[in-house]
């Protein structure tokens, strides 16, 4: 895959917080249509990496291109526009507790659609996004009335509503019971197939990785330590990789 065609390119990224060196010379590419898992220990810099990709954290060094654009060169308006193409599922879901499911889903539209577009299309967009995650019946419910797995689905629906070209999932199954975790993993694959999105999935849930990943990058000591299919990584004799599978 040449770099020009990549959905996301991270080149020689470094980031430290004071003396805490998190990422050192980390490089990767996300290819079109691919579900790429980033696997690393807790505290290894996985969330920092995706926050750099969506420009919430400024790198110390390195270049990040998203959908052909060098994000360090974008002004606020251009970055806003690009963000509409990037879905981000937070580990915490980040739903608004005082809003209904419907209001939560409509929220991103306020920023990215005109009033006219919203009046015309918001209802259909909300319905479709909720149907995609199997939760059409929760339209008028409050987040507090939903289970953890349902809240995760609503957060995913809110991500889908702008029809993103790329989706970043930060530990989508952490804190969920195994059956719900499997449902969310299957949903990630369903979304990939239906919308042909490319995704980065941060996870250390082996079942989730097995179900969702086309390729896995091991984030070890701040670097892209290995990039391969899950099956090949499982065969890799390197002790630092073995630690994750033994
Ligand atoms: N905004 C921040 N300010 C200072 N340190 C941070 C910040 N965000 C993350 N860190 C530190 O960076 C390291 C990696 O964090 P993170 O990317 O959240 O890990 P994880 O791989 O578990 O997602 C941790 O040591 C964390 O304390
Ligand atoms: Mg994290």
Automatic annotation (TrEMBL):
- Name the keywords, alphabetized: ATP-binding, Nucleotide-binding, Transport
Return the InterPro entries for the record: AAA+_ATPase (IPR003593), ABC_transporter-like_ATP-bd (IPR003439), ABC_transporter-like_CS (IPR017871), P-loop_NTPase (IPR027417)
Q: Where is the ABC transporter domain?
A: 8-246
- Superkingdom as given in the UniProt entry: Bacteria
Q: Which SMART domains would you find in this protein's record? A: AAA
Q: Entry's SUPFAM superfamilies?
A: P-loop containing nucleoside triphosphate hydrolases
Molecular function (GO) terms for this protein are: ATP binding; ATP hydrolysis activity
Name this polypeptide is given: Phospholipid/cholesterol/gamma-HCH transport system ATP-binding protein
- The organism encoding this protein is Algoriphagus faecimaris
Its taxonomic path starts at: Bacteria, Pseudomonadati, Bacteroidota, Cytophagia, Cytophagales
